[in-house]
Design goal:
- The radius of gyration is 37 Å and the shape is elongated.
- It is mainly beta.
- The strands form 13 sheets. Strands 37, 38, 40, 41 and 42 form a 5-stranded antiparallel beta sheet that branches. Strands 1-2-6-5 form a 4-stranded antiparallel beta sheet, with no helix packed on it.
- About 3% of the residues have low confidence.
- It folds into 4 domains: 194 residues, Immunoglobulin-like, CATH 2.60.40.1220; 90 residues, Sandwich (Immunoglobulin-like), CATH 2.60.40; 97 residues, Immunoglobulin-like, CATH 2.60.40; 99 residues, Immunoglobulin-like (Sandwich).
Length: 639
Amino acid sequence: MRLKDVTYILILLLVAACASIGNPDGGPYDEEPPVLLESEPAVNATKVKKGKVVLTFNENVKLNNAFEKVVVSPPQSQMPEIKHNGKHVTVELYDTLVPNTTYSIDFGDAIVDNNEGNPYENFAYVFSTGDVVDTLAVSGTVLNAEDLEPIKGMVVGLHSVHADTAFTTKPFERVARTDSRGRFTIKGIAPGSYRIYALADANQNNYFDQKSEKIAFMKATVSPFATEAVRPDTVWRDSITIDTIHSVKYTRFQPDDIVLRAFNEEMKVQYLVKSPRDTHNKFVLYFASPNAELPRLKGISHNIDNAYIIEASEKKDTLAYWLKDSLLYSSDTITLSVTYSSFDDTGAPAGRCDTISLVPKKKWEKIVEAEAKLYEEAKKKFLKIESRREGYDENNPPEYIPPVKVLPFRFTGSAAMDINADCRLMFDEPLLSADTAAIHLSVMVDSLWVPMDFVFRQSEGNIRNYNIFAEWRPEQSYRIEVDSAAFKGIYGGVSEKFSRDIKFRSLNDYAVLYLRVPGIGDDAIVQLMTKDEKVVMQERTKGGRCSFYFIKPGTYYLRLIVDENGNGKWDTGDFLKGVQPEKVYYYHHELDLRAMFEYSQDDWNINAPLNEQKPLDITKQKPDKERKKMNRNATRKFK
C-alpha cells in the first residue's frame, strides 16, 4: 500500500473518532412555564373598542383543551375563536362588546409551552369597555346534593336581577366553570347584590330551560367585597427543609366559601318508554317516571278484564303483567290501550292514552310444535325402556303419562345465616296456591328436632317472594322442610319436596355501633355504607341518636339524610317552588368495626363545611393531580 493511501485512511479514522466523542442532546430539559411578554390590548386595559385579543409569550405555545377550560365572561352567544400560532394566542369575540363592562377570559391552565407542556397556570386576561376594571370576585364549591360529590364542569353564574325568572329566561351576566374539586371563582364583578346559580348547561345558552339539566340555586343574595388579609409564605432551603416563613399581605375576595347543592328536578314528563313481551304469558310496561297510581288497561283485540296479575316496582314505573288466561296468552298479538297520568307543557296534570300491540318473540304455533316434539321424544324413550320389561305387549303398550311440570324456587337460607337476614322463598312465577300446612319448621334441642311456630307471608314489593318469620336465635340450628306439591304456580307448575338445615351466627361475630348526632332530632335517616356507598343498614334517629346492631366486621362509612317530609328517602328540589333538596351530611372518616366490639361515636359535626365532609376514599370525583415536574435534568448526563 502506498504511503499516500495510508495517510488518507488515518485521516478518515481520526475524523470518525472525533465525531463519536458524544451525541448532541439539545441541552437541559425545559421545565419553566411560558412567560407572557405583552398583550394587545394590555392586561386591565380600559375603553377597549374591539373584541380581539393577542397574547405574546417568550416561547412557542399551544392550547390544551381550550373548549373545556377557557371561560369568557360575560358569556358569549356566538362561540369565540381561540387559537394559537407560534408564540401567540389569539382570542376573537364575535358578540358586540357591551359598554361599561369588564370582560375576563379565564384560561385556567389551557396555555402550555409547545415542547414540554409546562402550563401557564391560573391566568385570567381582563379588560374593560368602560373607564373602570371591576375586580371583585366570589368563589365556592358545587356539590351533588344527594351524595356530596364534587361536580366538574358545571357553569356557575350571577344575575343582578333577583327575580327567579332571570335564571329561566336570561343568560348569566358573569360566569365561571367548576374544576375537578367542584371549585369555582367568578371574576371581574362590579359592586352590587347578585343571585347565584349553577347549571349543567346542556344546550350552552347559559340559562335553565331544560328540566333534564342539573341545577343549584340560593335564595339569599351575594354581595362581593374585598378585604386586606395576611397569609404565611414559606421559603424552602431544599425539598424538605424550611428556610423562613414570611407573612404576606394580599387582597381577599369574599364570599369565598359558597356551597351550592346541585340536583335534578323530578321529571314530570310521563310517557311509556317500551312494552316488551319476551314470553307469551308476560309483558312489561316501562315508564319514564314514577306513577302515583297504576295505569288503566283496556283490551282492543281481546277482553283482558281480570286476566292478569300485576307485579309493580316500588315507584310503579316498571309493571310486569302475568297473563292468567291461556286463550289470551296463546294469542300472537294482543292490542290494548294504556291510560295513565301525565303532564302538559305547563306541568299541570293531564291524562294520556297509548295504544300498543304486544307481539312475543316466538309464535305460539312454534312453541306448541316444540312442546309436541319434546313430548314425542320423551314418550319414545319411555316405551323403549318399557319394552325391555318382562311381559311387554307391543300391541297394548303402557300409557305414557308426562311428568308434572315442576315449579322451581330458590331458598336464601344457608348454614351460616346472618341474624338479621331474611329467610325467603323466591318463585319464578306468581303462585296460584300455597299450603302452609305442608311447610315444617323445626329447631334442634338436645340433638332432637322439635317443631316450632312460624309465619309464612308474601314479601313487600315482590309478589313472587315469600318470607318465613320465626323466633330465630343466635347459634341455633333449624330445619325447614317443604312437602311436595306445597306450592302451585299459575301456569300449572308444582313444587318438589325440599329440605334445608340453617344456622344463625353467634353474636360474637358482629359489632355494635351507637351514634349521637348533635343538632339532629327525630327527622333524620342514618345510613351505614360500604366503600362503594352501598347501603347495608339504615336507621331513623330519635333525639339525635340511633343504633346499629349485628354489623359484620369491616370498614364502613356514614351518611345522614334530613328526611323533612318523613317518607323514608332522600327527595330532590324544585326551583319554581323554591324547594331545596333535602340536606345530606357525611361522617368525616371511615369506621373500622371489629367483631365483639361496641362503638360509640358522638363527634359527628354536621356543621363542618360540606365540601370537607365526604371522605376522599369514597369520593368518586377525585381532584386532578397537580402537575408534577419531573426533575429529569438531575439525572441527565451532559457531555
